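ok new one. same drill as before - structure tokens go in, u give me an amino acid for every spot. 357 of them this time. try not to just spam alanines like last time pls lmao
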């Protein structure tokens, strides 16, 4: 098959090495991976075939796009794989520019991304389509926050507070009535907070933030990755989050749970997503799967799917090129254990050693 040249954005993320491996170890063809990132000293820069530092899309979107157009032309890029919230929006908004330069863009249209990244619109869409929407309220004042808390059963039940517009689990808090100071001191990167403490901070804000107040879902975590084509689910891989955070799987297990698969596919159709999509799902008190986050992009767990027999990163490239996506059977009960490993450099060169001396 013809060798391809792929542009991977945000290649400095902690999980980018797994994405790079999934692209290169696709079993069909050779692929040159050109990586970009806003920072120079990132692991992904040492793992791709070519690396460029670019202006961060979150700081200067115009300069970011102009630099990518230049790289696409210079490197004869076939497909762009955007990673990261801001990168996806910036690239999707100017899809025509990149396609005019000869590169396909493997992410949903801009208008769909905007709706898929806004948690208020996400929950409203899920509710309209009966697609696993938790009970939620949008609050723009402190009084609305208090009313929502009451309706969700606080203080008998904990509640969840999150920014309406955020990414990567930033700002998510579970508010409890019975957390004491000692538990806060002993917690490690926890998201559990005393209600009165957070309420006191909110009360002091001169401009109240746009927040979502949501029911607390006590059941099992699922991270579900899909490959989709204009809302049509092509492949769905659900994984139980055995250990991690609400936005990051550190130990996971493929679990082909039919109700979880059905909810994720229904939500995908409701939005009309294309290419790589991720839904974060938690089971309610009754065991019903509820979607608490939507990520219409490559996610941290996407490369995990390749170990289960579905290389969704590579298949997104094939989909962008109009190639046939194979019919396959997902391997159930595959486990992933994520760990950290360091690269050591001296004078800009990687040392062939695990020891920094």
């Amino acid at each position: 098959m013809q060798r391809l040249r792929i542009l991977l954005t945000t290649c400095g993320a902690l999980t980018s090495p797994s994405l790079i491996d999934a692209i290169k170890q696709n079993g069909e063809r050779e692929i040159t991976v050109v990586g970009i990132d806003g920072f120079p000293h990132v692991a992904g820069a040492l793992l791709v075939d070519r690396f460029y530092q670019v202006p961060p899309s979150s700081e200067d979107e115009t300069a970011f796009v102009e630099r990518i157009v230049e790289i696409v032309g210079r490197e004869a890029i076939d497909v762009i794989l955007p990673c990261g919230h801001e990168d996806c929006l910036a690239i999707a908004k100017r899809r025509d520019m990149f396609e005019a330069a000869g590169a396909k863009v493997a992410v949903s249209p801009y208008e769909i991304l905007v709706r898929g990244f806004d948690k208020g619109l996400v929950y409203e869409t899920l509710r309209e389509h009966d697609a696993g929407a938790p009970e939620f309220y949008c609050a723009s004042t402190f009084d609305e926050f208090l009313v929502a808390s009451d309706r969700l059963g606080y203080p008998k039940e904990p509640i969840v507070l999150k920014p309406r517009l955020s990414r990567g689990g930033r700002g998510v808090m579970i508010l409890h009535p019975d957390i004491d100071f000692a538990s806060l001191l002993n917690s490690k990167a926890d998201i559990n907070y005393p209600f009165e403490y957070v309420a006191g901070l909110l009360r002091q804000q001169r401009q109240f933030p746009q927040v979502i107040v949501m029911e607390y879902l006590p059941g099992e975590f699922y991270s579900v990755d899909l490959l989709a084509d204009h809302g049509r689910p092509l492949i769905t891989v659900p994984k139980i989050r055995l250990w991690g955070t609400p936005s990051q799987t550190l130990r996971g297990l493929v679990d082909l749970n039919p109700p979880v698969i059905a909810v994720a596919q229904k939500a995908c159709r409701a939005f009309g997503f294309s290419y790589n999509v991720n839904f974060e799902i938690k089971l309610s008190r009754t065991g019903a799967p509820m979607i608490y986050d939507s990520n219409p992009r490559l996610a941290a767990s996407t490369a995990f799917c390749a170990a289960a027999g579905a290389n969704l990163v590579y298949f997104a490239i094939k989909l962008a090129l109009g190639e046939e996506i194979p019919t396959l059977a997902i391997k159930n009960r595959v486990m992933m254990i994520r760990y950290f490993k360091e690269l050591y450099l001296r004078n800009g060169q990687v040392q062939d050693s695990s020891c920094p001396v």
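The first strand starts at residue 4 and ends at 8. and btw The chain has a mean pLDDT of 93.
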